[in-house]
């Protein structure tokens, strides 16, 4: 269970025909500046295929499977965005994708899953309950299971977003990344630090699902006793050893923000930038706006807008 920079570079080549190179835009000409002391860049993974960065990892995984593994059908559990990416992968691979979702998954994302031809199954109140049922279904039906974050191929795929950031903005000083289970920050931090060790990487978690924050504090992977965030795409009860090890090695800091801060940031993205982000997509920006992260003046900060959604519009 190892992943290295070369894996990320290979993933970038592998997935290029099936994903988008997303824009990196500067947040300026707005009525309020989230980071008035420096330059703020937004990596718009909300414009990625299926509406989030998750397509990167899912496609890298699909294209690394054997024909027999693809033929059997693929299955996963998701708060929404990973499920959409796996549904897209199933569509590309001309195979059946079964997606298990918790009860609090977005109705809009359920509709999108069905449009991609996926079989949707609702099970449990939180992601870990849906994931347990997905694993049982994989065993029962002989399906190929795709983990949302604890898989070297998934992590390498997500890391390709950092390759793009460093190509689009070679002088970036800090990267802010939302955390659910830890797949995205694992790949981004590994890639950014391997290429430019001076870059500061900060992970952002909801106070109601402080998965990696509590694990780092304990020095080991811990399972949270409860999940209270209302953001299903950031609601992992526990990370996994591969993600924890990469975060311990490459991530400079972890901060916590509230759900309301994400909602405020999502509204800012819509009204100031015309960007429709879901709450998890606004999490990195929320850390800046709420002053959970306070970069020194004059730095270039990149916040990943990880997923699309209507939350900022309403």
Provide a concise account of the structure shown:
This protein has helices at 5-15, 54-62, 67-71, 81-92, 107-115, 127-141, 152-168, 183-195, 211-218, 241-250, 259-273, 283-289, and strands spanning 24-26, 39-44, 74-77, 97-101, 119-122, 144-145, 174-178, 200-206, 253-257, 300-305. By secondary structure, it is an alpha/beta fold. Helix 2 runs parallel beside helix 4 (81-92).
How would you describe the shape? Answer: globular
The CATH C-level name of the largest domain is: Alpha Beta
H/E element order: HEEHHEHEHEHEHEHEHHEHHE
Main pleated sheet: 6 strands, mixed
Share in β-strands = 5-15%
Mean pLDDT: 95
Tally of individual helices: 12
CATH topology of the largest domain: Rossmann fold
Distance between the termini: 42 Å
Please indicate the count of domains. Answer: 2
Q: List how many beta strands DSSP finds.
A: 10
CATH architecture of the largest domain: 3-Layer(aba) Sandwich
Label this structure with key terms:
314 residues, alpha/beta, Rossmann fold, 2 domains, six-stranded mixed sheet, four-stranded parallel sheet
């Amino acid at each position: 269970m190892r992943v290295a920079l070369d894996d990320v570079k290979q993933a970038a080549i592998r997935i290029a025909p099936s994903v988008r190179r997303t824009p990196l835009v500067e947040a300026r000409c707005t009525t309020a500046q989230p980071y008035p002391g420096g330059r703020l860049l937004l990596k718009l993974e909300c414009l990625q295929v299926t509406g989030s960065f998750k397509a990167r990892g899912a496609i890298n995984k699909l294209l690394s499977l054997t024909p027999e593994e693809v033929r059997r059908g693929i299955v996963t559990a998701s708060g929404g965005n990973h499920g959409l990416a796996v549904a897209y992968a199933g569509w590309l691979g001309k195979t059946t994708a079964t997606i298990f979702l918790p009860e609090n998954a977005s109705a809009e994302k359920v509709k999108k899953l069905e449009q991609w031809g996926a079989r949707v199954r609702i099970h449990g109140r939180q992601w870990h309950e849906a994931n347990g049922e997905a694993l049982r279904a994989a065993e029962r039906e002989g399906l190929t299971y795709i983990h949302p974050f604890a898989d070297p191929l998934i992590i390498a795929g997500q890391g390709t977003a950092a390759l793009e950031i460093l190509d689009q903005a070679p002088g970036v000083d800090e990267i802010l990344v939302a955390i659910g289970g830890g797949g995205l920050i694992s790949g981004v931090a590994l890639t950014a630090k391997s290429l430019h060790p001076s870059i500061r990487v900060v992970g952002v978690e909801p106070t109601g699902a402080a998965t990696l924050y509590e694990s780092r504090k304990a020095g080991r992977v811990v399972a949270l006793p409860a999940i209270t965030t209302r953001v299903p795409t950031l609601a992992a009860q526990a990370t996994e050893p591969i993600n924890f090890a990469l975060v311990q090695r490459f991530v400079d800091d972890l901060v916590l923000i509230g759900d309301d801060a994400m909602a405020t940031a999502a509204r800012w993205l819509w009204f100031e930038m015309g960007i429709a982000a879901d709450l998890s997509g606004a999490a990195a920006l929320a850390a800046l706006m709420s002053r959970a992260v306070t970069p020194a003046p004059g730095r270039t900060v990149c916040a990943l807008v990880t997923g699309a959604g209507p939350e900022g519009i309403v």
